[in-house]
Amino acid sequence: MELSRHIAADPREPELDNVLIETPMPEGGGWLSWPGRLLAWVWRKLPWHRWTWKQRIVRTLAGMLALFVLMVGYLAITAPLSKSLQPMAPPEITLLAADGTPIARNGAVTDKPVRISALPPHVWQAFLAIEDRRFYSHWGIDPRGIARAALSNVTGGSTQGGSTITQQLAKFTFLSSERSLTRKAREMLIAFWLEAWLTKDEILERYLSNAYFGDNTYGIRAASMHYFHRQPEKLTEAQAALLAGLMKAPSRLAPTNNFPAAQKRMRLVLHAMAEAGYMTPQHAKSVPTPRLDVRNRAELPTGTYFADWALPQARQIEAAGYAGQTYRTTLDSRLQAAAHRATRQVPAGTQVALVAMRRNGEVVAMVGGRDYAQSPFNRVTQARRQPGSTFKLFVYLAALKSGLSPEDTVPNTPIEAGSYRPQNAGRAYSPTITLEDAFARSSNVAAVRLFNQVGDEAVIDMARRLGVSSPLPMGDPSLALGTATMTLLELTSAYAGVAANSFPVEPRAFPVPEAGWFDWLLDGKRSLSKRDHEAIEGMLRATVNRGTGRAAMLRAPNFGKTGTSQENRDALFVGYSGDLVVGVWVGNDDNSPLNGVSGGTVPARIWRDFMREALGEKAAPPPRKAADPDGPVQPLDVPDLGDIPVGDDNRIRIENGQAVLSTKVEGVPLDVTLDGQGLRIEPSGSASPALRSSVAPPPSATP
Fold this sequence. Notes:
One of its GO terms (molecular function) is peptidoglycan glycosyltransferase activity. By secondary structure, this protein is α+β, with helices and mostly antiparallel strands.
């Protein structure tokens, strides 16, 4: 505290003359007090202190009015008032690859607008009761509602919003999802504008005809048909209350996904209707819970396996229901093309799936089958198949956690006791084997013995920690060999957790948000000890270097595990190198055995070919022209025209904008070109006109 010094001189007390007295100065004195002194000087210069109290009130109100006019002028320029009275466009989502290439466009499920006069009163009353009881008396905003919501939020009550139906209409039809005071001010301005130019019934009709009701459904007519298969003019009180309850959180409360929550919210709406005087409390309690009547809807596929998986995630993104939204995904067009080239080597009639993700879960490539046009069923995300020996990752991690090390040994002799007696591939046995060799060579008997030693609870717990959510049976030793089914995406995500040593890893179609400073304290991530992580990576590396995964070897360090299910019904290879984690599955949809295909053959080679191109060990085709986000959707699940085989020794390629068929006739390579000038046949690579044979088009041909 700084002290002020002055001389005290009291004529009645001569002895105190010239005595130095120190008194404390106010806090913030010294050089820090100059802002206060400046404000005091400005205050003294203003005529405020000479004004009467009436002048102060009048001039303060005038200043506030001027500030309000300036704010309204600014918002009027920046707010979309001109389009607020125009017909609303149906919501559409466009998905882009990471480079901006459009990969899918998907419109919402909509229907004709409704008329308030044609609806039963209990339909619109349900929405007014729960969303805006004073809708017919306010001018677009409800000060009482805002005050009530603010009081509830401040006093720790349930979190409430003070937006009116008019404000909600302005928000979900004309504004973005930005959370800011500026956006809120624009929302209020548009609400005033709507109230000035539309009647209350017209506002309510627009609201009911455009609100989001979950399940990609917009408008009460589309929602009533989707959930109850009836027109909104015939909705019962219970059905109307259930639909009105969805407004709070349409995706979370959609009855097709969470019926108990939707039912609880419906009861709250009925209670609100009773409080508003639309029905008696006794009647509200007696309203029965409605039954859903969801009919199969002809869903239009998007054209790619990845987009089919990504679109539901886009709908979950905040403000995903707004019109004209464009979302950049994590899909890498270059890696997607490399995945298609790598998966072409599967035997005829056999299905294939490949998923590539970064260590943080961002999916960069996805092939869900041989041909999307023939089968949009996604074998990465929808097919539940046995992982085979790739499941041994969890067994050996549990063993390492229990204190074992890669150099410890386990018997590698046939199991001759008990009801479950697995065998090693090729009946290859030995008295003992180290854990590292047992993992690399995929010894079945060693894995089962380790499973019995550490216990099924430890193995299942390790799988759960790494993000496996599929059912894993207790007390079944065959679980050690991967007999429980799961998706390839789920399995690959678990390996990504090991690669990053941070798990569980959530697979994502959209970029992972950048973590804040303290997010790591709350994200619930776990990791392996340095000893265990180095040990399991040594085992995964040994599998590729000298074990069953030698066909997947790269020049760069890579780690992986082969898997083959019972009777060779599923063949897998899952591994990682650099920042990429990739899972490959080969099998038949009818679950029939594969002929001579195991995890260390075709899947390992597919994995290697993809990774060689992804990591730059193999030259990739020249890049395509720059992407146009507003251009047409690119069918990334269709191979390049130049990659399409047409019979033995035949290929189609693009040359100078024309399709050219390269073939052989009696061993002579020929190029066949068909264009507006006719059919041309010439030796492959020849440009001499003398060697060409032309067939003119018929007279009726269009040039």
